[in-house]
Each structure stands twice: as structure tokens, then as C-alpha cells.
Specification:
Elements (H helix, E strand, L loop, with lengths): L4 E8 L4 H7 L9 E2 L10 H5 L13 H4 L11 E9 L4 E11 L4 E13 L3 E17 L2 E16 L2 E20 L2 E8 L5 E4 L4 E3 L2
Antiparallel strand pairs: 1-2, 1-9, 3-4, 4-5, 5-6, 6-7, 7-8, 8-9, 8-10, 10-11
Length: 206
């Protein structure tokens, strides 16, 4: 069964405190609407702090994960890296990304994500490699596409007991129809990213 992950969010920004006082309004972010929640590990401290309501704001290197369309809004080269030992459990998360604008309206990016643990007997690791292209179709609208390759490996006493890999794809759109209003739309794993294992079986990545 085809499985879609869609996130739509919008956020309204009022420009000055004088406007707030004059209108008697308080600017509040609109809640992100999910067709289905993503089970992937989120990327980027700002996006995590916002609870994942980031698809309309992703105009940094973390856009590779949150909304590929955001790459074309960055306008400069950008390098990002993170490291985490999750809950001090020795489950290590590593992430690195690079963004390269190739013209005024086009940008490409690539990243690598690794999660896993290793003890004296059991070793598990998962890798994700993403390649993204984004383009501003109009001054206020952009679209992006991410192709991704995933691997999963399990070793026991130094011997590989399971190995799998698979391909997936994300698509995204970003629009700025009005001043102070930005709308993001993302579909993750639009063709059900599957991991195909050496034992002859396959599972959904998420």
C-alpha cells in the first residue's frame, strides 16, 4: 500500500510592535496539519525546538529533510553538522549537509545521516544519503525533489547477519503568496521507501 507523509504549515508574522498595538492582535503560528506523522528522526535544533512545524520555514541546510523546496531560498553556500548521543544510551546520531546554489533560482544539496550503536557483541547501523534539487519557479513559489538511498546493517560478533538497502523520494513546495505569509507542503517517502535485505525479503523503511 502506498504510504504518504504530508505536512502543511503556515505562519503569519506581523512586522512591528506598533502594528500589534494598533490592531490589538497577537500573532500566533498556525498549527501544522499532518496527513500522517513522520516516523523519521528530525533534523536541526531550531526545527526540533518548534516541534517539527518547520516545513514552511525551512530555508537553511535542514531543508533537505523538512522541505526540499526551501533550498532555492537560501542563496548562499551552507554547511551543517550535528552529533548526538541519544539519552546517553550510546545510540549515536550523526548528520552532515552541504548546500550549493548553482544559479539565482536553482540550488542543489546533499546530506548524510547515520544512526546506530556498537557494543562488544551487537552492532547496528543505518545510513541515509540524500541528493536534492530545488528551483524557484516564480518569485513567490518554489519546488524541490529529494532522491535518497538508505542502508541498514546488523553485525553479531563481527559477522554481518543482515544487510539491506533501498531508494526513496521526497517532494516539496514552498509559497509566499502574501507579505508575512509562507506556506509549505511536503510529501515524504511518496513511493513507500522499502529496504530490500540480502535474505530475500523487504520491509518499509518507516
Amino acid at each position: 500500500m502506498m504510504r504518504f507523509h504530508v505536512q502543511l504549515s503556515a505562519r503569519v508574522f506581523l512586522l512591528t510592535m506598533r502594528d500589534l498595538l494598533a490592531l490589538g492582535l497577537i500573532a500566533c503560528p498556525l498549527q501544522a496539519a499532518h496527513a500522517e506523522p513522520s516516523e523519521q528522526v528530525p533534523i536541526g535544533p531550531r526545527a526540533i525546538a518548534m516541534g517539527g512545524a518547520y516545513s514552511s520555514l525551512a530555508t537553511d541546510a535542514s531543508a533537505l529533510f523538512w522541505n526540499p523546496a526551501g533550498l532555492s531560498w537560501i542563496g548562499h553556500q551552507e554547511l551543517m553538522g550535528t552529533y548526538a548521543n541519544l539519552y546517553q544510551s550510546d545510540i549515536k546520531d550523526n548528520y552532515a549537509a552541504f548546500i550549493l546554489p548553482i544559479s539565482r533560482k536553482n540550488a542543489v544539496g546533499m546530506d548524510w545521516y547515520h544512526s546506530g550503536f556498537d557494543d562488544s557483541e551487537l552492532n547496528f547501523g543505518e545510513n541515509r544519503f540524500d541528493l536534492t534539487w530545488a528551483m524557484q519557479i516564480q518569485r513567490k513559489f518554489s519546488a524541490g525533489l529529494t532522491a535518497k538511498f538508505r542502508t541498514r546493517d546488523t553485525d553479531l560478533d563481527g559477522v554481518t547477519v543482515n544487510h539491506g538497502s533501498g531508494f526513496g523520494m521526497d517532494v516539496g513546495a514552498l509559497a509566499n503568496p502574501l507579505r508575512g505569509l509562507r506556506i509549505g507542503l511536503v510529501a515524504q517517502d511518496v513511493f513507500d521507501t522499502s529496504i530490500h535485505y540480502s535474505g530475500g525479503y523487504s520491509t518499509l523503511a518507516f
